[in-house]
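Hypothesis: this fold can be encoded by more than one sequence.
Test: take the structure tokens below, design a sequence, compare later.
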């Protein structure tokens, strides 16, 4: 599994564009937030889903969409939290997209969506700004 594939979490989060991961990759973790290697690379309890999900915990499924109760209450709650804050990630939408077009095509779509047109850097899911050329990134 290559690095980009490894960075798409079971819940549909693309860790590559998560603020905590962007901070870690650029060695900026002394700021406000802790860094994160990404859900899969870290392979610990997911802050949101994994610790509450037996199937993910036992690695019976690779993505939430593979589950017969998808989308479960935990995922719906997470989705609502993100939509409310205007963060640019739909966990349910991403899972459906991965199911529809496959993981590699999904990663390519995400790359187009989150690559800064000005500098080619990474746009952050949480701030909506380019992490590399925006001053308050
Ligand atoms: Zn930029």
């Amino acid at each position: 599994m290559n690095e980009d594939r490894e960075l798409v979490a079971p819940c549909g989060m693309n860790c590559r564009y998560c603020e905590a991961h962007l901070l870690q990759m650029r060695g900026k973790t002394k700021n406000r937030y802790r860094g994160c290697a990404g859900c899969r690379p870290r392979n610990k309890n997911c802050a949101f889903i994994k610790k509450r999900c037996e199937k993910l915990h036992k690695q019976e499924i690779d993505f939430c969409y593979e589950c017969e109760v998808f989308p479960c209450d935990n995922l719906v709650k997470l989705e609502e939290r993100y939509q409310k804050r205007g963060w640019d990630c739909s966990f349910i939408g991403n899972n459906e997209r991965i199911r529809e077009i496959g993981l590699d095509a999904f990663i390519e779509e995400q790359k187009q969506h989150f690559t800064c047109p000005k500098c080619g850097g990474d746009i952050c899911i949480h701030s909506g700004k380019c992490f590399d050329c925006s001053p308050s990134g």
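The chain has one domain: 3-114. The mean pLDDT is 88.
Hypothesis status: open.
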